[in-house]
## 1
Amino acid sequence: MAQENAIEIIDLKKSFSEGDYVLNGINLNVPKGKVTVIIGFSGTGKSVLLKHILGILKPTSGTIKILGKDISLLTDDEKVKLRRHFGVLFQYAALFDDKTVLENVMFPLDEHRKDLSKTQKLQIAYEKLRLSGLDEKHYKKLPGEISGGMRKRCGLARALALDPEILVYDEPTTGLDPILTEMVDNLILNTHNQNKDSSSLVVSHDLHAAFRIGDYVAMLDSGKVLLHGPPKVFLESDNPLVARFVSKGVNKK
Amino acid sequence: MSEKLRERVNHYLDLIVLTIVGVIEEFIYEVGCVMSFGAYSMGTFFKKPYRMKEFIQQMEFIGNKSIFIVVLTGTFTGMALAFQVYLGFRMVNATSLTGPIVAMGIARELGPVLTGLIVAARAGGAMAANLGSMRVSEQIDALEVMGVDPLEYLVAPRMWASVVALPLLTGVFDFTAMVGSYFLCIHVLEMDEAIFWDKTSLWLNPNHINEGLIKAAVFGAVFSLICCYRGFKTTGGARGVGDSTNRGVVLSMVMIIILDFFLMNLIDIYYKVTT
Ligand SMILES: Nc1ncnc2c1ncn2[C@@H]1O[C@H](COP(=O)(O)OP(=O)(O)OP(=O)(O)O)[C@@H](O)[C@H]1O
Ligand SMILES: [Mg+2]
């Protein structure tokens, strides 16, 4: 494998309570310049896995390497530097609830792009919000005053604000209508295509979309990676769990 | 038989001692965690990027929005205290000392302690609830992922704003309490105005007021530290937020009252050593 990995996870284990492992030996590579989709039943630890990659949770054992560096060995400064390469959409958007939609998107720009003028930053924020499909009349509202789907799209715009190298989306389309779902999927693809070096990691329940946007798909079950490969191996797999998931996904479509 | 009994007693004694040691150990560990949390947060305030905007927002919230309630409590505390002291001194014909005794009591004790308690309940509770809900809705995680240190962005401005705002509010409390007691003594109890002020300025020492203001600053650091720490360590959803708020406020209030006693002695010793 000559391919470079953006994220490398080696034998990752995590338990929140003695003996009960949520993640039980995950091995997964997220190749650079590709879109990797993680699927799996609700509660299998997809969000927990993402939080380990982001360094929010500490593994019980195992190693996570990002751009070749073991994140448990980084100093605080190096961590901050590394995190600027990340754009993250949380499952529940995690918008700052004392800031308006526009201020939320401006926040990473204000923090990390001191070289830009206020107008330039505003321009970027408007552009990202428009791309995420949010109407301009909502920009001055607080997160408490908009719908769940709108919060998600605002979170998406915030994740994209810095044009990051590694994009992590936790269920970007859950709770959106079919038209918006397609739009957000296209946005993920377009963002990816614009910057060929960027790598995306998407958690999704929507199998149809997973196969459309994913170069690779990984299925989690019982704290392990059940199957990992290009979409077509999922269609050919005779593992009953995979088959069940796939048949449901196709039915839905 | 007695051998066996002795063994069991020994066993239980061991258990009790070990439990006590464990509790003490845990307590010391926890205090250490809180202290380093506070020291680190307060230190980051003087490093770039400077969080002036957040600091001023917090000052506005802690200081400005507490003024009304502080003025109200101050006035009535001043009047109530003056009346009590007056009743006491009337028995020994020393009512002319009402002014200075009230002034000292307010400046050294009631001013900082009551202001601390009021602000801890109001602003401290809000801090714990605010940070707690940010924690459970993953906003603090989001900050961290965006490369912003949540201690520097959220905790430092709150703590410094409390340290600065509390002495100011105590000043307001002292002033309005004196106005209250003046009103009661002169206009209701019909004491002599000249004697009231003369005795007060004779007995009240600027050090008494300073002492109160220093205590207030310490109380500000203590309640904001406890409430921020509690909020920051919140787990367990919306119920957890309520829990943190509750425990943060109660612990802050108890700590203010306990610390008041020790600070009083410490400051006394300091004055004795320096004069
Ligand atoms: N902070 C925590 N403390 C204890 N247990 C946790 C914690 N976070 C997650 N878990 C447990 O980890 C398991 C996986 O949770 P996770 O949120 O990763 O699921 P998920 O795969 O993202 O599900 P969904 O598709 O519904 O979002 C759950 O059983 C949950 O109870
Ligand atoms: Mg999840």
## 2
Amino acid sequence: MNQQVRVIRGWEWARPVRPVRREVLEAVPALDEGRPPLLFVPGFGHGAWAFAEHWLGHTVERGFSGYALSLRGQSGSGPAPEATLRAYVHDVVQVASGLPRRAVLVGHGAGALVVAHALARYPARAAALVAPVLGGWATAFTALRHNPLGTLPALVGGRLRCNHAQLFGPELPRDEARRHLSRLGRPARRAQWQLLFGREPEPAVGDPPVLVLGSPEDRVVPRSALTRAARRYASAPLLFPGMGHDLMLDAGWWEPIDAILDWLEKEPSGG
Amino acid sequence: MTTSIDHGRPDPEPSTLDRNCAGRSVSDRGETVCVIGAGPSGLTAIKNVTEHGFGVDCYERETGVGGVWNWRHDRSPVYASTHLISSRPLTQFPDFPMPDDWPDYPHHRQLLSYLERYADHFDLRRHVWFGTEVVRVEPVDGDRWDVTTRSTGGYGPERTSRYAAVVVANGHNWSSKLPDYEGLAEFRGDVMHASAYQDPAQLRGRRVLVVGAGNTGCDIAAEAAQQAAHCWHSTRRGYWYAPKYLLGRPADQLNDLLLALRLPRRLRQWLLHRLLRLSVGDLTRFGLPQPDHRMLETHPIVNSQLVYYLSHGRVTPVPDAVRFHPDSVELADGRQIDPELVVFATGYLPRFEFLDPKILGDDGMTGRPALWLNAFVPNHPTLAVAGLVQPDSGIFPLSHWQTVLFARLLRLRETRPSKAAAFAATVSARAGERYAGPVKESSRHWFEVGHADYLRVLQRALHDLEAK
Ligand SMILES: Cc1cc2nc3c(=O)[nH]c(=O)nc-3n(C[C@H](O)[C@H](O)[C@H](O)COP(=O)(O)OP(=O)(O)OC[C@H]3O[C@@H](n4cnc5c(N)ncnc54)[C@H](O)[C@@H]3O)c2cc1C
Ligand SMILES: NC(=O)c1ccc[n+]([C@@H]2O[C@H](COP(=O)([O-])OP(=O)(O)OC[C@H]3O[C@@H](n4cnc5c(N)ncnc54)[C@H](OP(=O)(O)O)[C@@H]3O)[C@@H](O)[C@H]2O)c1
């Protein structure tokens, strides 16, 4: 990780990211007990819906408020075929800073990369990186190995497609998996490219605690990548064997979210 | 008790009682840091210092956060129509952006709501005692500080607390600079400083003279053009009047594009001169004097309306006023004009009345402290000033990084004293350093900074602190 703080961002100041309509689904407990809100950030192809399915409801049942964002170009947010990673990070920071309190950022898949970048631009209370796709060649190779037909076009600027076996474990009923797959959208080409070759995230501001979660059977993120990601934040990954890449949709979805909320309750700065 | 309409914090619990040399009792606040003022600079100081693990007590003499931008405050200099002159990306805090669907140049009420959200989001109000004024800040042994406060307005007893460090964030736009003229006392018309100007109704139907062409003077002249019976605008030199948009983008963003391209200052000045010539034209045709300096050598004026009203003949440019008569004002060119209202938009002066000027290196009592990065004080490693800058951008980002740097420094004093000592040596060696090219001598320009030059030095200082 690049360890130096960046103060000067002339290009960004001179060329601000354009605003866009952003879909934010929310679930807020009737009684606010002052806990930090969670902001869920989906990865490529997904949208806020992926968290609305189970995790938002579960979060609110446990007394936390939950917000799920669709990045620009994803499901209910405004179209943005030319979206860049920078624009995605902008979307996350915009929504996070609009919440009533310092938020916990939870990113899934490539959304975890967006979160890792957002942590350098917003002093989050804490962050959870779920099955994080942090980019680089290893990501491309793993995807190629498990889904060559879906991945190859992406490497030459085409569309990235994920298949059933990459995203879900064997226990999720077929028709449910099919329903989710049919909702997957098309990631923006430039952002997809920046995932592989973009810059390392800058150091997080405000020193937030970071939790990494994943599955050893994930066919998008190899086990070694999980360990590497966790090491970056000086911890070890929490593992949920038997699940696929989409921990928030797969059978057993409550285990990872419970783990995140338990962790937040224990964290001195959380709960 | 706080006289607060805001939910500030309750009175401090003194941890230990001590007596200072004058025999007053002092409550020792341990490692807590004191922040003076809860304007934008004070708020970001609270946030960044607490983020580095220190306790903070902030004193604010008004009843709410926001400083200048809180129009409810008696001392707030904003008028009903105030909009930013620095555009959003160059004004917002770097880690808490304004909503991206706000206009490029938001209104002052939006600024207040932004600052209130910042305070709530980071839970800063619990550190603030509102309605409490700092009257004295004195150094004591061990680089600690005795801070004496009382209720605003001078009611109630004084109390003194001892702090590990102090951030002075008292702002520099509240103490009016009022020039004196021969005969001013006998002048029969109304006279006011721009800080008392709130609403165009004050100008309606009257013959108005506006003195000064900072951004305030230009804003008020443009309003007088629409409301007053007549408007004279008196300036003591020619200026570059930059519009809010150049080449289809906010002017400061264009400047930053040129900066990002690393164009040298001279070339930037030349380009900006050409651009203004091509888009706004030669202003001497409206009777304005030729600028006596290049662009970027006075604090930028950003105003698209003034030139428009000059072109309508709704504003009459006039030279400096030299003398007042009971019924008229005499100008430098010998002309006499007969305004009913004179608005002095002659700016403000920084004031630190609670501090011995010598502490800030102002031995000659000139009102110009000698600091490094306009913030760090030689021989006083636990004192910093935030927001004492007049940048060609917004102030908030500069205050943010100043206080981040100060908070890191305070941490390093504990963990790596050698680093902190090296920093202190730099402060002494480089106090008084400037971060702008040549500027016109004026009471307002000694703390003018180019934000890019300034932040580059600050970034370097941060990296040096963090280096192994
Ligand atoms: C009309 C106008 C327009 C402006 N437009 C812009 C712009 O477009 N962009 C920009 O960046 N800046 C602008 N400014 C500059 C403005 O000063 C800064 O934006 C900003 O408010 C500076 O923040 P601050 O916290 O340093 O000072 P302030 O906002 O002045 O806050 C200082 C606070 O300290 C408190 N205080 C002072 N002394 C004491 C004491 N002894 N004890 C306790 N509390 C004390 C005050 O009550 C106040 O709340 C403008 C200023 C004016 C007047
Ligand atoms: N819309 C906005 O966002 C906005 C509006 C107003 C103010 N501001 C900011 O607020 C700050 C203060 O601005 P300001 O306009 O109030 O003050 P200012 O920038 O200090 O301008 C004062 C003006 O008065 C002149 N002047 C000073 N003393 C004088 C004297 N004795 N006789 C004649 N003229 C004299 C100055 O001339 P010289 O050129 O000789 O110095 C200058 O033109 C600035 O940072 C400004 O950018 C922003």
